[in-house]
Structure formats: C-alpha cells, structure tokens
Amino acid sequence: MSSTILVTGATGYIGSHTCLELLESGYQLIGIDNLSNSREESLRRVQKLSGKPLTFIRCDLLDEAGLARVFAEHPVDAVIHFAGLKAVGESVEKPLLYYKNNLSGTANLLEAMANAEVKNIVFSSSCTVYGIPEKLPISEDFPLQAVSPYGQTKLTIEYMLQDLHASDPQWNISILRYFNPVRAHPSGDIGEDPSGIPNNLMPYITQVAVGEREQLSVFGGDYDTPDGTCIRDYIHVVDLAKGHIKALEKLQDNPGAVITNLGTGQGYSVLDMIRAFAAATGIKIPYQIVERRAGDTTAVYADAGKAERDLGWKAKRDLQQMCKDAHRWQSKNPRGYL
Ligand code: WQD
After folding, report:
1. 200 CA from centroid of ligand 1 (Å)
2. First and final CA of the chain: distance in angstroms?
3. Do 54 and 19 contact (CB within 8 A), yes or no?
4. Which of 42, 118, 189, 317 could potentially form a cystine with 113 if both were Cys, beta carbons 3.0 to 4.6 Å apart?
5. Tens digit of each residue's pLDDT (9 = 90 or more) over 83-111
6. Which of 105, 19, 95 is nearest to 66 (CA)?
C-alpha cells in the first residue's frame, strides 16, 4: 500500500505543485490549508492534471482540535509542511502575525504529529536564513542570520525541529532551504497566484507581459554586480517539487535531522531575467531602474552539491523553460485562479 502524506499549505503555490508530483509518484494525499492566501481551485486542477483524487480539508494550524481530528481520521505516514505566511515586507509591518501564525501553527502541527506517533516531516525552509552571505556559493554549513521577522520564523522552526529530534531521535526531519522558486507547471494550469501587487520578480514580469502591469521597476542598478542589479538563484517550481519527493524517500533511511539547499547553483541578475524572458517568449519587458528595495542582498546563489550527493536530486529546467512556463501560466490565467 502506498504511503499517505499530509501536506500543509496544500493549495498554495509550491504546495500545489508538490501535490501534483506526489500524486504522479503514487502517494495517497491529504491536503490541508486555511485558504487565507490561496484557493482550493489549485487542487481541483491538480486532480484533473494527475487524474487522481486527493482529500482536501480546510484547516488552520492554529485550530488544535481540527488538527487532532485530521490525524485521528486519516492514517498519515509523513508530513510535508508548507503552511505559513511568507511576505518579507508584511512580516516587518506585522511581526506578531508572523510569529503567531508560523511558529504557533508549526508547534501545534508537531504536537499533533507526536500525539499521533507520526515522526516523519519535510519542512519548507528558505535561503533567507542565510541572511547576507559572506561569500558565494552558499553551502548548508554557512552562518545563519535572520534579516526579517519572516526569516526569523523560518530559522526558529529549523531550531524547533532540531531540538525535537534531539529530544526524540525517532523523528526523521528533512529541512529544505529553497532559493528563488519560479513558476509554473508546463501545462499552464497551475502556478503562482500572488494576491495584489506581486512582491516577487517573475510574477511581476509575467503580469507586465500580459498587460496587467505597465512596466517593471528594477530595484537598484548600482549593486556590486556585473550589470549593477541583484543576483539570485532561480529554480523551476517543478524541480523544487521533485526535490520534495526525493527528500520524502530519504526519510525512509532514518537520516535523523538533515538540512539541504534546493537551488540550481547558478545566479542570474534582474537584467539577465528580463533578457531571458524576451529570448524565451519574444516579449520585451519595459522597465525602469529605481532606488534599491530595503532588505535586498546583492547576490545569493546555492552550492547545490549536497542535494545531488544526499538526495540524488539536481535541478534540470533552465531559465528558458522557467520563462516559457511562467508566461504560459500567466497567459492562460491573467488573473490567477479567479
Ligand atoms: C528577486 C530580485 C529584487 C521585484 C524572496 C524572499 C525569499 C523567498 C524568495 C520565500 C531582487 C528584484 C523584484 C520587482 C525587482 N521567498 N525585483 N523588481 O527577494 O530574492 O526572495 O522570494 O521563501 O525569502 O525574500 O525574491 O523575486 O522578490 O526579488 O527588481 O518588482 O528581483 O530587488 O533583486 P527575493 P524577489
């Protein structure tokens, strides 16, 4: 009988893409989400794309009784934990909202898991825990430094998980530090659906490309990089989702608590992305270089070697595919899942 996986934040951007990969890999799925920042439509499309059913339960991680019911009513073998608020800027304005939602929510989840004797978890962390790196590429043993309340919640949850494993070595924990996920599934039927003005670069580019936005503001052209704009390690969300399947499989070996970067190891600047998008789609993105955005770091990209050695995973999709798939999603869904 195939394993049953509980996915928190299942209707979200990376959650829904991972649900599709899980179904296609033969797992049984229970998805939970409070739908505060995403729509159940994403999972309806995931089931249509895979031709397989999943169970969706609307549940907030702050609802302890609701969480206990999920574990009481379903035979969960492992959890993939995506649920959490993730807007850096918003976390600076509303830190308590982020600490309550992300930290208390995770503590409730872990307690419900322990009570149900479910001790296998894959956690969605972020390269943001590295703060401002002293050198590049970034490997997992680099110093950690939260530079926003959002980053602080990711770092604190990593410590929670490691303390939990230290207290009970039966826990198998895979902490995945994502670099910059870029959508979308090649079907164009599921993708990133930011509410309001996109914070992230690629959704903004694709909204300009389909005429939803006038032009792109490039935040800063005077950084210490070849073309003056910031460098990031952009990774296709399908590659990222496949990394979760590998991480789940790794938990079978009882690895204890392990930490892995999920990145491509290749950095691209903002202007590189604009050029790549035009080359991939034929659409020139109008832009203007404006002042820097507070909190941005000059350059961030991964040493992706550990994921290949330990998980047997390596990103396969290049910038051209990222841009084509991102544009296809936005063209088919100019207003997201509306
Ligand atoms: C990328 C580059 C911007 C928008 C964030 C989170 C991180 C992770 C990934 C969750 C930067 C520039 C952007 C725009 C621009 N999320 N940019 N104009 O900030 O690297 O990472 O998302 O885990 O935690 O911090 O991604 O896409 O916002 O920015 O010039 O309209 O694009 O300055 O250099 P970021 P991003």
Report:
1. 5
2. 37
3. yes
4. 118
5. 999 988 899 999 999 999 999 999 999 99
6. 105
What is this structure's pTM?
0.95
Q: For 177-229, how does the pLDDT look when each residue is reduced to its tens digit (9 = 90+)? A: 999 999 788 888 888 777 788 889 999 999 999 999 999 999 999 999 999 99
Query: How many CA atoms lie within 13 Å of 82's alpha carbon, on the beta-carbon side?
Result: 26
Dihedral pair phi/psi, residue 63, rounded to 5°: -95, 90
Catalytic residue among 150, 204, 223, 234: 150
- Report helix, strand or coil for 242: helix
Residue 150 known to be catalytic: yes
| Residue spans of beta strands (DSSP E) within 85-193 | 120-126, 172-178, 180-182
In the block, residue with structure tokens 């309806």: 44
Residue 259 scores a pLDDT above 50: yes
Per-domain residue ranges for the chain?
4-183+234-265+301-316
91 neighbors 153 (Cβ within 8 angstroms): yes
Mutate to test the pocket of ligand 1, among 102, 132, 180, 202 (most ligand atoms within 8 A of CB): 180
**Residue 88 in contact with ligand 1 by CB distance below 6 A:** yes
* Domain at 4-183+234-265+301-316: CATH code: 3.40.50.720
